[in-house]
Amino acid sequence: MTEAQIGEIVGHIATFGLMLIMLSMGIMLRVRDFINVVKTPTASLLGLVGQVLLLPIMAFGICYLMALPATLAIGLMVLSACPGGPTSNAISMIAGGDTALSITLTALSGLIAFITAPLVMNFSLNYFQIAGAQLELPFIETSVRIFFTTVVPVCLGMYLGGKFPNLETYRQTIFRSGFGLVITTSLLLLIARSELLGSAQAMFAALLLNVSMMGLAYLLGSLLLKQEAQVRTITVEVGLQNVSLAIVIVLTSLEVFEMLSPTLFYLPIAYVTGFGFAYLMRKRDRRAVEA
């Protein structure tokens, strides 16, 4: 079996896993959740600007300053174009954030990713030229693929969740099944291509993107928002990326395994910093109560 065939099989499995994740998100969403965007325009706008605009700008700055090789640079840019994963909702809740805002931002960023992600990816492919390779990304085809992978499952989940309220009981099972498929395929890929974790540059770039965006989001949130819960949610939502979507995009659209290196480093880093942030926020709340 050739490397291309292996990548295609792994990509299909990861895509199905991501669709299950997005379906589980849709199950707990209702139309009223999107109305929160209107009710809290400053927080919602800040979150979306941070995810859609500031993240790719920060990632590009890191690529430029670190002089990353083209494959790693494109991989980091793809990661930056995949904002707001479902895991951020759980971390936001643990951190004492605004759960409704977190869910809304995750859903909205996922819905518009089918437009923003191909734009960022096409820019990256044009700017960071890979020696000996001419990669092209059909915008319409990529957008349609992301649309059916993210938007359609969310909408289906919303419909099924509204029609069958008891389905929420199985939401966690659906999410874990999808996340398990994505992680399993990633681990299998790592076993076959262990050199993907051999780049110190990729590790530091992933760490820098995560920490700098969490710090910037917390700073902007503290300056522009009045509610501490919203500040915490913005920090988590802007700081933690949708790793599952990044993996699927690289495997199915770009098909260059080396581009996965920053994302595979980012996965454990985001868990450490995300839960570390939640722990510090909870610790601060306990001290406030004791005082």
Cα(first) to Cα(last) distance is: 64 Å
| Rg from alpha-carbon coordinates | 18 Å
Query: What is the overall pLDDT average?
Result: 83
Which spans of ≥5 residues are poorly predicted at pLDDT below 50?
A: none
Estimate percent helicity: over 70%
Provide the CATH top-level class. Answer: Mainly Alpha
Helix and strand run: HHHHHHHHHHHH
Word description of this protein:
This protein is mostly helical and 291 residues long. It is 80% helix and 0% strand. It has one domain: Na+/H+ antiporter like fold, CATH 1.20.1530. The chain is built from twelve helices and no strands. It starts with a helix and ends with a helix.
Question: What are the key terms here?
Answer:
291 residues, mainly alpha, Na+/H+ antiporter like fold, 12 helices, globular
Task: Describe this structure in a few short sentences.
This protein is mainly α. 80% of the residues lie in helices and 0% in strands. The protein has twelve helices and no strands.
